[in-house]
Amino acid sequence: MTRTNLNRFGTLIAFVVLCVGFSIASPTAFATPANAFNLVQQMATLAIVATAATLVMTISEFDLSVGFSASLAAVICFVLFGLGYDVWLAVPAALLVGIVGGAANGVLVARFGIPSFVATLALGTILSGFAFGLSGGQSLFQKVPDAFKGLARGDVFGIPVLGFWIVLVLGIAAFVLNQTEFGRRLKAIGGNAQAARLAGLPIVRDVIVTFAIAGGLSALAGLLLASRLGSVQHTMGEPLLLPAYAAVFIGTTASPTGAPTVAGTLLGVAITGVMVNGMTIVGVEPFVQRILTGVIIIVAVLLRRVGRAQ
Amino acid sequence: MVGPNGAGKSTLIKIIAGADRPDAGEVLVDGGPAHFHSAHDAYAAGIRVIHQDAPLVPGFDTVENCYLGREYPRRHGMIDRAAMRERIAMVARDIAPDLPLDVPMMFLPPAERQFVRLLRAIADKGRILILDEPTAALPAEDAERFYDVLKRTRDRGTSIVLVSHRLDEIADFCGRAVVLRDGRIVARLGAGEVTPEAMIGAMGGSAVERSTRATDTSAPKVIEVEALVAGDLTRPASLQVHAGEVMALYGLAGSGRSSLLNAIWGAIGWTGSMRLMGDAYAPRSPREAIARGVSCVPADRHRSGLFLDQDLIFNKTLPLLSSYRRIRGLPVPHAASERDAFLVAAERVSLSYREPGQLARTLSGGNQQKLIFSRWANRHSRVMLLDEPTEGVDVMAKATIKDIIRAIAADGNAVLVSTSDRDEALELGDRIAVFRQGGIVRIFSRAEASAEALSAAAQSREAA
User: Fold this and answer.
1) What is the mean pLDDT of residues B304-325?
2) Nearest-by-Cβ selection for B321 from A179, A184, A257
3) Given the DSSP bridges, would you call strands B74-75 and B47-51 parallel, antiparallel or unpaired?
4) Percent of chain A whose predicted confidence (pLDDT) is above 90
5) C-alpha–C-alpha distance, residues A222 and A52, integer Å
6) Distance between CA atoms of A252 and B149, rounded to whole angstroms?
7) For B461, which DSSP code?
8) Which of A49, A188, A251, A302 has CB atoms 3.0–4.6 Å from A268's, for a disulfide?
9) Are A222 and A74 in contact (CB under 8 A)?
10) B449 and B426 Cβ atoms separated by less than 8 Å
11) What range defines the domain where residue B436 resides?
12) Do B322 and A181 touch (CB under 8 A)?
């Protein structure tokens, strides 16, 4: 294996090593079908939020509102349930709020030129205010319609439903980024926005659409989380933000130019997911888990840089 | 020091600056052998290499930038700002008395920043300066001011090695010249011998060859511009370009020639009226311009043209991506058609490359420029807009690019070439519109144009 290949597949190898290591350390608890099922369920919402982050990072922007969008969507959905509306109205309405919020991010960034870091932080804070207000700061335990429970719970032929969501969402995102004209334009905008504009690309529109998609995906992740847990809190999406970007950054170490990719992001999600799951099983204290996860991210990116320098 | 890209200039500079070791031979300083083991040794010997885009700290002023990496004078343990300023001011008085010392870099124009780089190099006992393309990013009038400063630096007793593609500047400024080609010195020109013709001859290029074609006024007018005002173009400008004609737009940077191109390209707002093939034409974005058969190679390929971390096919097909679909209604590019189109286009612009999948950043400057030309090589454009198409490109690539430009015109396009290079305007332009201070001063026909007449028109102060 050449050095380039080692750099490229190093992250994948690290993932395999992790899995093998935990399997040896705890063959009866880690390497079981039940745990694999569990792992996929734990990873799904993060994978979808991280995909949203990947799209936005492809155009060299940040979206810090992803977690807030997820919370707000879940809250809106449950509030609508409480008012007696059914799934067919509540879920599209919640997704729409996410898309509109994302589009608003895009407008602030593309039309008004506000740095995305600032715009999405501000808008995310506004969204979280709405989530707080609508939920009254309480946990919501509505009587949830069965159709909504089915979104994220249970399995088909032994494969968790959330696994299908991962395949569906990430599959479409990868196709869009790698195969379509839209995806090509996003890479161009991320690579050199000025050149993209002078090459005739509809930048303002594409940036707004990208943020809207990110908002919609975040809302979807919030709904799936709500479906799985059966209850909603107005802060439930916030812990997704940092792990999502951690996953994207780990994923960039697997791409030749250091650009974010959907496949890389999935790998990043899987690595962080397996780390947390495996360490919990072998009995590592939660505080140590966090420290180790942070160390892993630094090491991954450092190894990548050493590889590239050579 | 002159020579085409890849001639060995950079290697020679690195060796002199101690960054590279020679395989054989030695560097002599003050007549004695200097054994540089690192760039630090060369620095200690007073050698300073000044790169055109050497980083300055944007929030620091001139004095602070000149003291970067040096020991600060101290007084009572505190940094003695007054002493710093006094030492820098002493040198600045000699070479650039008008340079502001207390203004952060971010508020200084590019030419002044270039003075700061120079000042920094000599303020800390630099006595041998190596300048790598110091005026490449400067408009002509700023370049003149730069050379005034450089002359005063020279007159203080500083030795200067100047590396530039701008041969006329070398001829004006330098007492001697060495010409490199293919890793060796092919000519040493002494006092009185440093002329552009001699240097081009030694590099293997041909001397300026002027366009001899006359404008075919019976050919249809492709693009007509009436009373156009846009960006730097503050006085209403009008011109028409015929099919098959090359119109050169000559003037200093900021004289309005680039703004005219950008307006036709739809990249900036404008007022006035335009017609394309006799029909009303009012582009509000490059997208609309492309749809109407207008093509453009923008100035400053790194900032405005290329996607350096993407491959050659990506860079080539991007602006017309929707013409490579396999299924018409489905916005999914077809890799095989893209590749075929790239191969045809690469051939047409004589691009030299290893493989279509290599990254754009791995091409030389000339080939990067050809790559941008290749974007439009598969379609029949009506208007081709070229902004400084040979900037920062070596002599050989320049010749190829000029051939490409003539071929585009011969194909029946109306070509507008904006340039700050007078010889290039003479060489390419069937007619030459001279810009000064935001307006067209005069449009020369082939027969009327001469180097002297163009310079006079571009720089005269009266007749606004």
Assistant:
1) 93
2) A184
3) unpaired
4) 65
5) 12
6) 47
7) S
8) A251
9) yes
10) yes
11) 221-459
12) yes
Task: Give A185's contacts in chain B (Cβ within 8 Å).
Answer: 318, 321
- Do B187 and B74 sit in the same domain of this protein? yes
Per-residue pLDDT tens digits for B177-189? 999 887 889 999 9
Q: What are phi and psi of A71, to 5 degrees?
A: -60, -50
Q: Are strands B246-250 and B431-436 parallel, antiparallel or unpaired?
A: parallel
Q: State the CATH number of the domain containing residue A292.
A: 1.10.3470
Chain B residues touching residue A196 (CB < 8 angstroms): 307, 318
Cα–Cα separations (whole angstroms), residue B278 to A202, B238, B314, B342, B410:
27, 15, 34, 32, 21
Q: Does any CB of chain B come closer than 8 Å to the CB of residue A172? A: no
The pLDDT value given to residue A154: 81
Handedness of CA A227, A229, A232, A234 (dihedral sign): negative
Asked whether residue B211 is domain-assigned, the answer is no
Total domains in the fold of chain A: 1
Q: How far apart are CA B440 and CA B246, in angstroms?
A: 17
| pTM, full prediction | 0.81
Task: Out of A174-183, A286-295, B96-105, B175-184, give the one with best mean pLDDT.
Answer: A174-183
229-288 in chain A: CB under 8 A from chain B: 257, 259
Cβ of A257 and B287 within 8 Å? Answer: no
Q: Return the CATH number at B136.
A: 3.40.50.300
Q: Which member of B285, B304, B333 has the closest CB to residue A200?
A: B285
Q: Is residue B210 part of a domain?
A: no
Q: How far apart are CA B397 and CA B399, in angstroms?
A: 5
Residue with tokens 């028409």: B240
Number of Cβ within a 10 Å radius of residue B110: 14
Answer yes or no: do B134 and B232 share one domain.
no
Chain B partners of A205 at a C-beta cutoff of 8 Å?
Answer: none
Q: Is the dihedral of CA B384, B388, B392, B398 positive or negative?
A: positive
Pair B226, B191 in one domain: no
Q: At residue A195, what are phi and psi to the nearest 5 degrees?
A: -65, -35
Contacts of B209 (CB under 8 A, 6+ apart): B427
Beta bridge partners of B177: B189
Residue B1 covered by a domain: no
Closest CA to B159 of B48, B66, B67: B48
From A180, A187, A198, residue closest to B304, measured CB to CB:
A198
Distance, CA of B140 to CA of B163 (rounded, Å): 17
A227-276 pLDDT tens trace? 999 899 999 999 999 999 999 999 988 887 888 999 999 999 999 999 98
Half-sphere exposure of A43 (CA within 13 A, CB side): 29
Contact pairs from chain A to chain B, CB under 8 Å: 69
